[in-house]
Structure formats: C-alpha cells, structure tokens
Design a protein that fits this description.
Blueprint lengths: L1 H17 L10 E2 L7 H17 L4 E15 L3 E15 L20 E11 L4 E9 L1
Antiparallel strand pairs: 1-2, 2-3, 3-4, 4-5
Bound molecules: 2-acetamido-2-deoxy-beta-D-glucopyranose (NAG) (4 copies).
C-alpha cells in the first residue's frame, strides 16, 4: 500500500544525490502513533532479530512498549527508537513468530530492558542496516 506512494519520492531523493545535486536530509520527525507505523515495526523486527542473535539468553526478547521514536529522511529512512523489551517464553533455536511469543509472566524470568536502536532503511536497495543498538 505504502510502497506506491513512498517509492517515487525516495527515488527522487536517490536521483538527486546520484546526480551530485545536494539533497537535503530532513529533520527527525517524532512519530506519534508508533504501534501503527510500518517502518518502525520493520525496524524493530530487524533490531530485535539482531539483538536475539547477539545475546546468549535461551529465550527470545521482544518489544513490550515503545517510549518514543523518530524518523528522518536520509537517502532512505533513519529510525531512532527507544523501547522497553521483555523476555518471552519462546526459546531460541526454533523458528518463531514474535506475535506468538507471550512475555514471561513471573519473576525471575520476566526481565525487562530499555533499548535504544537506530536502523537505516534504504527501500530501493532492499537494505536494512543496524547503526546502533544498546540495551540496559
Ligand atoms: C493509531 O492508528 C490506528 C490505525 O491507523 C488508529 O486506529 C488509532 O486510533 C491511532 N491512535 C492514535 C493515538 O492516534
Ligand atoms: C516493511 O516490510 C514489509 C515486508 O518486508 C515491506 O513490504 C514494506 O514495504 C516495509 N515498509 C516499510 C515502510 O519499511
Ligand atoms: C539472525 O540470525 C539468523 C540466522 O542465523 C539470520 O538469518 C538473520 O539474518 C540474523 N538477523 C540479523 C538481524 O542479524
Ligand atoms: C523517551 O521516553 C523516555 C521514557 O518516557 C524518556 O525518558 C526520554 O527522555 C524520551 N526521549 C526522547 C528523545 O523524547
């Protein structure tokens, strides 16, 4: 749905920078309705997949709630997100769908962390790049 509307605009940006004419990166825009933002959802899936790959917890973590998020046009989209993540009951090593992974209900397994991640998406190259990821 989005694609039809968004792609030509992004192509225009790509074209402008490709021809050497200065392209103006936009300012970061605060996303109000984070849960319904497809770009943030994609960026989050990507960041959480990287997080789960890098940690040696036996369970999968996923986002519990978003604190805030911005999007900025820079040869694509740069998403900056702050979110609270929690440990789910899904074990790593098996295919899973984040949607079907409930959070751990009880201590001591119901851990939470605050994560900050920056994901850069270049839709016309089908590229997703994790620029930073920090959870504490
Ligand atoms: C967020 O978006 C959804 C669907 O587009 C809508 O139903 C909901 O009311 C929105 N929430 C806010 C706080 O704008
Ligand atoms: C989100 O990901 C889906 C599936 O890969 C893709 O079709 C869609 O264009 C993406 N949207 C955004 C805004 O990144
Ligand atoms: C996580 O690991 C899986 C399996 O090795 C891989 O397919 C996937 O691309 C990785 N995700 C990220 C974001 O690194
Ligand atoms: C994001 O939300 C957290 C928690 O509500 C808050 O502490 C932080 O200052 C916010 N950051 C920005 C950039 O708005």
């Amino acid at each position: 749905m989005d694609r039809i509307l968004v792609t030509p605009i992004l192509f225009a940006f790509g074209f402008i920078s490709f021809t050497g004419i200065q392209s103006q990166p936009g300012h970061p825009i605060n996303i109000v309705n984070i849960t319904n933002n497809e770009g943030i959802q994609n960026a989050t899936r990507f960041a959480m997949s990287a997080y789960n790959n890098q940690t040696n917890d036996i369970f999968v973590f996923k986002v519990k709630r978003f604190n805030n998020a911005t999007v900025q046009v820079v040869k694509g989209y740069k998403y900056v997100v702050e979110a609270v993540i929690g440990r789910t009951t899904c074990r790593k090593g098996k295919p899973f769908n984040f949607k079907d992974c409930p959070f751990q209900p009880k201590p001591p397994l119901n851990r939470e962390f605050v994560c900050y991640y920056t994901v850069w998406s270049i839709p016309w190259e089908k590229k997703w790049i994790l620029l930073s990821l920090k959870c504490q």
